[in-house]
Amino acid sequence: MLTLLGAAFVALLSLSATAYAADCPRPGTLGTSRILAVDPAQYPRVGTKSFPQTLPLNDKEIVLTFDDGPAATTSAVLKALRDECVHATFFMVGKGAQEMPAMVKRVAAEGHTIGHHTWSHRYLARIGFAAAKEEIDRGIEADNAALAGVPSRTRTAPFFRFPYFESTPELLNYIQSKHYAVFGADFWASDWQPMTPEVQLKLLIGRLEAIRKGILLLHDPRGQTAAMLPAFLRYLREHGYRVVHIVPAGSAADPAQRTPIKQSGN
What we know:
Layout: H1 2-18, E1 32-38, E2 45-46, E3 61-67, H2 74-83, E4 89-92, H3 94-99, H4 101-109, E5 113-116, H5 129-146, E6 156-160, H6 169-177, E7 181-183, E8 187-188, H7 197-211, E9 214-219, H8 223-238, E10 242-248
Parallel strand pairs: 1-10, 2-7, 3-4, 3-9, 3-10, 4-5, 5-6, 6-7, 8-9
Helix pairs in contact: 2-8, 7-8
């Protein structure tokens, strides 16, 4: 019986993947506009705050990313995303993933992408290559371990973000040798600074209207961000913005990997 249930669960996940980009069943929500499969060989370093290149986004297309989780406030962030039927990428800290594996599983089960943000969020450029390498590898291992044994169409992705965006040429080359894409950002809400959700929303909207598209950095452990997020997603919906969800090229969530459903003849 357990084997049959497990097989059914895997089959359900596979079926869900085929409908992953479908419109939200609730009318009037923002919805995920499209899925963008990212190949680290083609986009090894993205985000104009750190690198010359960013993702190929159209006008008014936004990629939502969250750093530093999982945390207790991740639940509120997930609810806001679920209410608007949008998907994001969570760059997780390995120590938190080890402490909160159930939250990691929940993020994956709700269809979001999980990337990596080191083991304990140290300034990697200041601790030497060997220590920095350990921070990177240990964080990735912890994120993967949190999902071990759990079927998911969105496993941890070969996506990495440096804490504080602080890197070195040697570390960038190391990440690239692992066939991981390094993510910077195109704009952010500066939510590491204390402010009210209302002030943060106004700041973020101003930056959004100036850039009009790009990779957005937010932090799910920040209570002010969790409180601000529903209003921000509503603003995106009401002003014609679209959310693009990034997934690893070649993964089960990559639209190119889906097998078309054959229609039986009459």
